[in-house]
Design a protein that fits this description.
The chain has helices spanning 16-29, 65-77, 98-103; strands at 11-14, 35-41, 44-51, 81-89, 110-115, 122-129, 132-135, 137-140. The chain has 141 residues and is α/β, with parallel strands linked by helices. Strand 6 and strand 7 form a beta hairpin. The structure holds zinc ion (ZN). Residues 87, 89, 97, 100, 113 line the site of zinc ion.
């Protein structure tokens, strides 16, 4: 008997209203990076929590720990899970930088990047494992 290992591609469902909210939030912060948290249940996104990027940079974002902690509490009070950390790349591709990977706090949480490098914003969802990234399939519903 042949036992084959099938690696399932992770499929994330994002409501189109939240997709639009992410694009608009990212645009509103240009030329600086925007950031925030995405929450929901397993692979279904149900809420978006924009956070103020304190460093006003086009290549970095920073949010004080107490703001992150209080936002995570609000998410948990709604019985949702933090699914991903979102940030934008105002003028580079939607690919995690070495800096992004190095500073990603928790492999249980995914990474979402929207790039404004091209005419149409590009949103990518990544799973992070030991400083490497894998793109997930995104269904906008
Ligand atoms: Zn980045």
């Amino acid at each position: 008997m042949v036992i084959s290992k099938i690696i399932m591609e992770k499929i994330i469902t994002l409501p189109s209203s939240l997709y639009q909210a992410l694009i608009v939030e990212g645009e509103s912060q240009l030329p600086y990076e925007a950031c925030g948290l995405l929450a929901g249940f397993q692979k279904q996104v149900t809420s978006f929590w924009p956070l103020q990027n304190q460093v006003k940079s086009s290549s970095r974002f920073f949010v004080p720990k107490e703001i992150v902690t209080s936002t995570v509490k609000k998410i948990q009070n709604r019985k949702e899970q933090v699914l991903a950390i979102f940030h934008t790349h105002p003028s580079t591709k939607p690919v995690p930088s070495q800096f992004d990977l190095k500073h990603h706090p928790d492999d249980e949480v995914d990474m979402v990047i929207i790039s404004y490098k091209y005419g149409i914003p590009q949103l990518k969802w990544y799973q992070i494992r030991h400083n490497t990234y894998t793109a997930c399939k995104l269904v906008i519903s």
